[in-house]
Amino acid sequence: MDTMDTDVIVVGGGPTGLTVANELGLAGVRAVVLERLPERTGQSKALNLQPRTAEMLDMRGWLDTVAGRAVTTLPGGHFAGMPLDYTALDTAFPYQVGIPQARVEEFLEAHLATYGIPVLRGHELAGITQDADGVTATVTTPDGTERRLRAAYLVGADGGRSRVRKELGVGFPGRDGRYSLVVADVVLAEDSALPTEWRLPNPDEPDGDDVFLIPLGDGVYRFLFAGPEQQKHDRDDPVPDEEVRAALAAAKRFRPRLLEVRWASRFTDAARQAERYVTGRVMLAGDAAHIHLPAGGQGMNLGVQDAFNLGWKLASVVRGRLPERLLDTYHSERHPVGADVLANTRAQGILMWPDDDVRALRGILGDVLAMPEANRRIAGMISGIDIRYDMPDAPGHPLLGARLPVRLAAGRGALLGPGSDGVARPWAGRVDAGPAPEGVAGTVLVRPDGYVCWAGPAGDDASLRAALERWFGPGD
To answer: Which of 154, 385, 427, 435 is most deeply packed, by most CB within 10 A?
Structure first.
């Protein structure tokens, strides 16, 4: 077996792993991505970018290109099919970008070429060992031979059945799925009754179906369905074309003719989360760290945001700017966020397949969500806009730990990620009393992932210097 040295091995070539690799490349860190699939599947999978993810892509200058590949935009979100108004959010992107996951992956993988980071397809992880100096991954190559790769760190972004997580022996507590569904990309014959726009699922419609059909373009539709037949199957059972055809035939609003099933897969409302995201020199991200019902369109976004939180920190440690203990903040910040998503998707799961009692609950909750303050609260949660991390400096400040609000960031320059010298670039600027909420005028310090890591009055230089050293290393 031969040996290849690199700084970081990323296991998994989905949106999470590719985003981590891009963040590392931006900082000049050597990395390699291992992907067990020999080629892209073309499966659309997830279908949206939430406002907070859009903000992060925009910070890197990627959003315009990614949005150019989108199918549509959606003016808001939903909580178990009940609409959420994103226009009330303090963001430049008060909408969802409707884009298949496959197109996001295509962009991220192509962008890796600018850093010379390879994606090794057909390479399957067989085992990992770690010691005080690094991690060794044993990989099965496309020709069946084994290869060892040695790196300082390894990131497991290899999905809900993560081999990395299992190799580490990290617990994955939670519960198994109780309800089974099928998702498919299908090609349908032209029919004037078919939807031409994306619409949110609405269990409250009296003539509603247990199906969800939205157009992806060129006669391709995303088809989601669930019923008594689907509950008879295990998660790994194949989905025959006839099952898809029967579900289409049972729909009340549509009578489409099925021409082709591009792909189909079963999924459940299982909810699990890794007990720890960091084990020595190995980190878990994306579905390797958490699985949940894809309610509200949060899954891909949660993983990509994991990657933005982890990437610049890992780069700073690899380049020797900051001590390894910085990686502990990846777990302490992102584990609670993942737990919150699991909680809200479990709640949505109960509400999305209602019996008479749950319909009564939906009626009350719908009235509550019609109130602007309540709608804003849940919209902030689903969109990712309201994420706030615990920060040790200047506790209690209204901005500390939150993303820099757009009303304060406007005209103050782009937020920069780690540079080619491996230095995580902060952004610091004055917050004037005019556009700022009462009591927050002064100076703010912003991390490369867009979160305020220090805020205080002008002239508090000692505290500011301490925050700079904590998050960005000693000054030169």
So the answer is: 154
